[in-house]
Amino acid sequence: MKRYFFIINANNSEAVKVFNHLKKELDQEETPYRTFYTEHKGHAVEIAKKIIYVNKDSIKAIIAVGGDGTIHEVFNGIKDDPEIPLGFISSGSGNDIVRVFAPKVKSVKNQINYIKRTRLIKSDSGVIRMIGRSKKDQVFLSAIGIGLDGEVAKYTNEARYKKVLHKLRLGTFAYVITLFKVLKSYKPVSIEVEIDGQVHTFNSVWLVAIGNLPYYGGGMKICPEARYNDGKLDVCIVHTITIQKLLMLFVFVFWGGHVKFKGVSQFIGRTIKVSTNQPVAVHADGEYKGTTPVSIEINPSSVPIKV
Asked: 48 and 34 in contact (C-beta within 8 Å)?
């Protein structure tokens, strides 16, 4: 018998609460499923791999219950088996992946309908390599952030106020609070970006965003033209602007208006390498990965998404 496999972020009280409501309906409708709860960071990767190893022929879909970080881990657990559908029940702070693929799946009724649907789409994904490190390649669905936003992602995930704001359904504000904290000491850097073999250099760079999807950071439309199925990655570089203009940019970014700012450069490519004059933070789908240099490439139509 084929069944659904749910991986729930046990450290996210909202995810547990959401799934408990959903579970009652699943049981009432006699939907075949199994549940697994994460116990620590990275555990969802391990769980997903074990599910495939033991149950490969009986998987309808593996469904992440949590935020972008949980989805990111589950995806990295199933990345070596491109036939396993990935689904999600949203309950995170950012929800940038769900914002694209399942924006209306919020009520229990909609969640049940979503689970019952058999429609799948093939999405591109990105591959990230931390150059010079022994870490294995990882994959991402939404975006890579390098520089200021990498620092913001790193410290937001460690902040106590993130959990508090998440419970109040104000998770995006956690990123705003951290932004002001990080800005006190952050210094722009010089970078070299190689896109499909062509090298570009920039001075006084605040951030580099590389998007497979338009959003990151809780609804910031950082790469507004990014599409999940175009076989390309969108690159947005913010450079040579004052802090005052940078803060204004972070207002406009929620609808993509920042791209009209002087000091915002955009590119499109399939393979990207970013080097900096000093190491800066890198995040993927909001999860801290390390520091530059880093290379990224697109993997077209590589993951079946349940929609």
From this structure: no
Are residues 146 and 97 located together in one domain of the fold?
Answer: no
The torsion angles phi and psi of 61, rounded to 5 degrees, stand at -170, 155
Give the CATH number of the domain where residue 102 resides.
3.40.50.10330
Domains: count for the chain: 2
The string of pLDDT tens digits covering residues 111-151 is 999 998 999 999 999 999 998 775 788 999 999 999 999 99
196 and 285 belong to one structural domain:
yes
Query: Of 118, 146, 164, which residue constitutes the final position of a domain?
Result: 118
Q: Counting every residue, how long is the chain? A: 307
Peptide linkage before 279 cis (omega within 30 of 0): no
What is the residue range of 239's domain?
125-302
Q: Assess contact for 123 and 302: CB atoms under 8 A.
A: yes
Tokens 């909202």 correspond to 14
Same-domain status, 22 and 169 = no
Contacts of 190 (CB under 8 A, 6+ apart): 201, 202, 203, 204, 205, 276, 277
Q: What residues contact 178, with CB distance under 8 A and at least 6 apart? A: 152, 155, 156, 159
The reported pLDDT for the residue numbered 125 is: 98
1 to 32, 47, 59: CA distances (angstroms): 8, 20, 9
Our CA angle for 150, 72, 139, nearest 5°, is 80
The parts of the chain modelled with pLDDT lower than 70 are: 92-93, 134, 158-159, 161-173
- Beta bridge partners, 120, equal 306
Query: Around Cβ 199, how many Cβ atoms within 10 Å?
Result: 10
307 within a domain of the structure (yes/no):
no
Q: Token pair for residue 290?
A: 């390390």
